[in-house]
Amino acid sequence: MHVFELQELEDATQSFSPSQLVGKGSHGSVYRGILNDGRRVAVKKQSLALQNLGDNTKLQNEALILSSIPPNPCTINFVGVTRHHKIIVTEYMPNGTLHHLLHLSTTPPPWPKRVSIALQLAEGLRCLHELNPSIVHRDIKSANILFDDDWNAKLADFGLAARLRGDDVEAKLPAGTIGYIDPSYTTPSKLSTKIDAFSYGVVLLELVSCRKVIDVTKSPASIDEWAIPLIEEGRVIEICDKRVCSSLYTRRAITKLLGVAARCLSPKENTRPSMREVVACLECLQMDLMAHPYPWSMNYVRDMVRSMMRRKKSRFSGQCGAIVVTSGACRDADREKNGGGSNNISKGRLLVREILADITLK
């Protein structure tokens, strides 16, 4: 564990300038900084309230937990700490949080990216849970999932993390964030990796729906109370983020993803999957999506045809009026032309498979 001098971090953050502030919470404030060797880092400084109380237990716990985690691509990398653990330093994650991406960004992530995020988070949790002793994060939420330069998701903020020591656990009172915390986690003795599994299930619902975890303007206000009945009734499409088109293949993947979420949110802890099981399932989903990279929905086909027509580069551009891929008005016009009711394909019309073949070749 590298121990920094306070002056080094003051130089790196322009004396903790407000212009370098990137985040603030109850436990501390996070500043971006550049070390003398050129590395970009995030510097977490204890909050003023905790400084006044002389309580540095949260940052101390985070430093000890981070320093014990073997390097892996799905958890944030620990860089060092100051004496007495009042300031900790981690790698800098320039692309913000999953919470921001889902709720504040104007560009929603496509479905394959969402599956990738879910897989990376599951892999990070698997690494924590399979350590000896296991580490339970206890605060899995979209605001604690950060993105690096390449938009890879990493789990961060280990201030509430706890170790499981055989049949015993660290004597920590239940903690977490409302909306994400397992309602059955009521005493220290109930701490287990299944607590993280529940919170992970909530994040999956948030990832698919882009609905707030707690939304008092809706009924029910809790995302899991709203989504689980819809999953059980097979009404998956009602949960999906409406801003992003889905195809046959992505809808299958989303259905399986929500199935994983439902298992993670089971009130019976022993029926919740391990993160190893989740990782295996999501790897299969990701491979399936990679095998079918084109979103073959009718909306997609229609948009592609319109684009081809606008560009006037298609060999079919001279027969635009005859292209019928979707709907209503075109079909009615064809029926009228053929004396009503005829479904025969006229010479000027194109089969959808021909359009798809043309798009694929491009």
Can you offer a commentary on this structure?
The protein has twelve helices and eleven strands. A hairpin with a 5-residue loop joins strand 3 and strand 4. The strands form three sheets. The protein has a six-stranded mixed sheet with strand order 1-5-6-4-3-2. It has a three-stranded antiparallel sheet with strand order 7-10-11. A two-stranded antiparallel sheet has the order 8-9. The chain has helices at about 5-10, 50-55, 55-70, 100-105, 110-130, 195-210, 225-230, 250-265, 275-290, 300-310, 330-335, 350-360, and strands at about 1-5, 20-25, 30-35, 40-45, 80, 85-90, 135, 145, 155, 160-165, 170. It is of the alpha+beta class and about 350 residues long. The chain is globular and about 60 Å long. It comes from Perilla frutescens var. hirtella (Perilla citriodora). This is Protein kinase domain-containing protein. GO terms for molecular function: ATP binding; protein serine/threonine kinase activity. Keywords: ATP-binding, Kinase, Nucleotide-binding, Serine/threonine-protein kinase, Transferase.
Structure, briefly:
The protein is an alpha+beta fold. Helices cover 40% and strands 12% of the residues. Strands 1-5-6-4-3-2 form a 6-stranded mixed β-sheet. Strands 7-10-11 form a 3-stranded antiparallel β-sheet. Strands 8-9 form a two-stranded antiparallel sheet.
